[in-house]
């Protein structure tokens, strides 16, 4: 008998074909996110779940799904899943690291460049038919090349962001829970800095730390005040790492120059005050959204799920030690 799995959001045909080869699949190709009740009912007695960051997998849900053995998230971040609650029930949790590093780094750079050169402002200006001619002092932006880039979170994506800075002759400083290996620092020409030092020195700050209770509001009013008034902040990781209300106040009163944001608190209902600010570039959580990368993420999640449910070892098993310890 094939294991029974639920896929909560629309995925690609090749993902479904692969899954169907190994599992009995119920796929929500209609793509509307399930409510918690609907999700519990759909999982029912299924063995596996392939889900997205829009699905909350918490203890209350797990209580209602006693047969569940594996949860494969289609994302590298897994703050939508209560991993300790899964581990306590012996449920394997997997994610999709590696396949999205370059695409997410590209998007962080897109936001940084767009905010520095005021791309959303100038595009509206042209679309509104307001452009009457070239002027020397028109739409002055700031240079990214030769500036100082501060990266907060120097995991795989942070390192891909740093690599791109070499082509722009930037000075790169970074802050991370743990200092990276000296050979990585040397390869990326990146110097470790304390958080306050980074906030004070960087012209551009890109946040790439995972979201957790420790990183909730890592950047709030106090940290924004420590930045240069000319600083540009990019959040390409998770909403909640930045206190959005504090950022809005800082963008309004000139505490910092501008921001580029792919993620928000309370997505998709972002704070409407962002919409009135000209000095912010907004994107709807598309960091990893290229066709090739989203296909690779979905297939990676499917491979993890199949391995978990067919006696294999999922390649990206995030709670392996906790589940193994439980026996
Ligand atoms: C991730 O992988 O965590 C991304 O945010 C999903 O797009």
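Sequence proposed for the structure above (327 residues):
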């Amino acid at each position: 008998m094939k294991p029974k799995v639920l896929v909560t959001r629309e995925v690609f045909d090749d993902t479904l074909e692969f899954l169907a080869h190994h599992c009995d699949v119920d796929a929500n190709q209609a793509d509307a996110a399930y409510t918690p009740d609907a999700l519990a009912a759909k999982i029912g007695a299924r063995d596996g779940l392939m889900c997205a960051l829009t699905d909350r997998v918490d203890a209350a849900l797990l209580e209602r799904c006693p047969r569940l053995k594996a949860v494969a998230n289609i994302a590298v971040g897994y703050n939508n899943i209560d991993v300790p609650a899964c581990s306590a029930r012996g449920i394997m949790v997997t994610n999709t690291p590696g396949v999205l590093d370059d695409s997410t780094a590209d998007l962080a750079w897109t936001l940084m460049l767009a905010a520095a050169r005021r791309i959303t402002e100038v595009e509206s200006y042209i679309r509104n038919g307001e452009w009457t001619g070239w002027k020397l002092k028109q739409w002055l932006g700031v240079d990214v090349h030769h500036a100082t880039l501060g990266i907060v979170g120097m995991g795989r994506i942070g390192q891909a962001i740093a690599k791109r800075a070499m082509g722009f002759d930037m000075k790169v400083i970074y802050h991370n829970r743990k200092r990276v290996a000296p050979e990585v620092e040397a390869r990326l020409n990146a110097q470790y800095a304390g958080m306050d030092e980074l906030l004070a020195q960087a012209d551009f700050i890109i946040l790439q730390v995972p979201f957790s209770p420790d990183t909730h509001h890592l950047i709030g009013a106090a940290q924004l005040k420590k930045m240069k008034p000319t600083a540009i902040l990019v959040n390409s990781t998770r909403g909640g790492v930045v206190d959005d209300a504090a950022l809005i106040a800082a963008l309004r009163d000139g505490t910092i120059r501008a921001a580029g944001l792919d993620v928000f608190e309370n997505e998709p209902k972002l704070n409407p005050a962002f919409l009135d600010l000209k000095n912010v570039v907004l994107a709807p959580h598309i960091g990893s959204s290229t066709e090739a990368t989203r296909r690779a993420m979905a297939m990676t999640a499917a491979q993890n799920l199949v391995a978990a449910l067919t006696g294999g070892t999922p390649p990206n098993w995030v709670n392996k030690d906790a589940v193994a310890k439980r026996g």
